[in-house]
Amino acid sequence: MPAPVSRNAIRAIRLLADLLEPATPPPIVVPTVRGSIQLEWHTSGIDIEIYIDSPENVSFFAEQLGSDENVELPLEGHEQELKRWLKRIAER
Questions:
Q1: Which of these, 31, 71, 41, 84, lies nearest to 49 by C-alpha position?
Q2: Adjacent-strand bridge partners of 58
Q3: CA geometry: angle at 58 spanning 77 and 65, to 5°?
Q4: Number of CB atoms found within 10 A of residue 15's CB
Q5: What is the spatial distance between Cα 49 and Cα 53, in angstroms, rounded to a whole number?
Q6: How far apart are alpha carbons 61 and 49 in whole angstroms?
Q7: Model confidence over 55-74: pLDDT tens digits?
Q8: Are residues 36 and 11 in contact, defined by beta-carbon separation less than 8 angstroms?
Q9: From CA 48, how far away is CA 34, in angstroms rounded?
Q10: Span 6-53, pLDDT tens digits
Protein backbone atom coordinates (compact mmCIF):
# COMPACT_ATOMS: atom_id res chain seq x y z
CA MET A 1 0.00 0.00 0.00
CA PRO A 2 1.53 3.37 -0.96
CA ALA A 3 2.08 5.95 1.75
CA PRO A 4 -0.63 8.61 2.08
CA VAL A 5 0.02 11.74 0.12
CA SER A 6 1.95 13.95 2.54
CA ARG A 7 -0.42 16.90 2.11
CA ASN A 8 -3.30 14.65 3.19
CA ALA A 9 -1.33 13.65 6.29
CA ILE A 10 -0.65 17.31 7.10
CA ARG A 11 -4.37 18.10 6.63
CA ALA A 12 -5.27 15.22 8.99
CA ILE A 13 -2.91 16.49 11.69
CA ARG A 14 -4.22 20.05 11.43
CA LEU A 15 -7.80 18.86 11.42
CA LEU A 16 -7.27 16.83 14.59
CA ALA A 17 -5.56 19.77 16.28
CA ASP A 18 -8.54 22.00 15.42
CA LEU A 19 -11.34 19.58 16.29
CA LEU A 20 -10.32 17.40 19.20
CA GLU A 21 -10.83 18.14 22.86
CA PRO A 22 -8.47 16.71 25.50
CA ALA A 23 -11.02 14.02 26.41
CA THR A 24 -11.62 12.88 22.81
CA PRO A 25 -10.29 9.37 22.31
CA PRO A 26 -7.62 9.05 19.62
CA PRO A 27 -8.86 8.00 16.19
CA ILE A 28 -7.93 4.95 14.21
CA VAL A 29 -5.88 6.25 11.26
CA VAL A 30 -6.46 4.33 8.04
CA PRO A 31 -4.36 5.12 4.96
CA THR A 32 -6.05 4.13 1.70
CA VAL A 33 -4.60 2.72 -1.50
CA ARG A 34 -5.37 6.02 -3.28
CA GLY A 35 -3.24 8.05 -0.86
CA SER A 36 -6.15 9.43 1.12
CA ILE A 37 -6.61 9.09 4.87
CA GLN A 38 -9.57 8.04 6.99
CA LEU A 39 -9.87 8.95 10.66
CA GLU A 40 -12.27 6.67 12.51
CA TRP A 41 -13.87 6.35 15.92
CA HIS A 42 -16.06 3.39 16.83
CA THR A 43 -16.89 3.90 20.47
CA SER A 44 -19.82 4.13 22.87
CA GLY A 45 -22.31 3.18 20.18
CA ILE A 46 -21.18 6.01 17.89
CA ASP A 47 -19.31 5.65 14.63
CA ILE A 48 -17.52 8.67 13.15
CA GLU A 49 -15.43 8.55 9.99
CA ILE A 50 -13.61 11.47 8.40
CA TYR A 51 -12.43 11.05 4.81
CA ILE A 52 -9.51 13.16 3.62
CA ASP A 53 -9.27 12.60 -0.14
CA SER A 54 -7.31 15.84 -0.56
CA PRO A 55 -6.79 18.88 1.66
CA GLU A 56 -9.69 20.54 -0.19
CA ASN A 57 -11.95 17.46 -0.26
CA VAL A 58 -12.80 16.38 3.29
CA SER A 59 -16.09 14.80 4.31
CA PHE A 60 -17.45 12.89 7.27
CA PHE A 61 -20.02 10.31 8.27
CA ALA A 62 -21.40 9.87 11.78
CA GLU A 63 -24.08 7.64 13.22
CA GLN A 64 -25.57 6.60 16.51
CA LEU A 65 -25.84 2.82 16.34
CA GLY A 66 -29.29 1.41 16.97
CA SER A 67 -31.04 4.59 15.85
CA ASP A 68 -31.85 6.44 12.66
CA GLU A 69 -29.55 9.30 13.66
CA ASN A 70 -26.80 9.77 11.10
CA VAL A 71 -25.18 12.40 8.88
CA GLU A 72 -22.95 12.32 5.83
CA LEU A 73 -21.64 15.75 4.87
CA PRO A 74 -18.71 17.63 3.40
CA LEU A 75 -16.64 19.13 6.20
CA GLU A 76 -16.63 22.63 4.74
CA GLY A 77 -19.56 24.51 6.22
CA HIS A 78 -20.38 21.66 8.63
CA GLU A 79 -17.47 21.85 11.06
CA GLN A 80 -19.78 22.52 14.01
CA GLU A 81 -21.84 19.42 13.22
CA LEU A 82 -18.70 17.28 13.30
CA LYS A 83 -17.59 18.95 16.53
CA ARG A 84 -20.97 18.05 18.11
CA TRP A 85 -20.47 14.39 17.22
CA LEU A 86 -16.89 14.36 18.50
CA LYS A 87 -18.02 16.00 21.72
CA ARG A 88 -20.47 13.15 22.25
CA ILE A 89 -17.68 10.56 22.26
CA ALA A 90 -15.45 12.79 24.41
CA GLU A 91 -18.15 12.96 27.10
CA ARG A 92 -18.58 9.19 27.41
A1: 41
A2: 52
A3: 85
A4: 20
A5: 13
A6: 5
A7: 999 999 999 999 999 999 99
A8: no
A9: 21
A10: 999 999 999 999 999 999 999 999 998 889 999 999 998 999 999 999
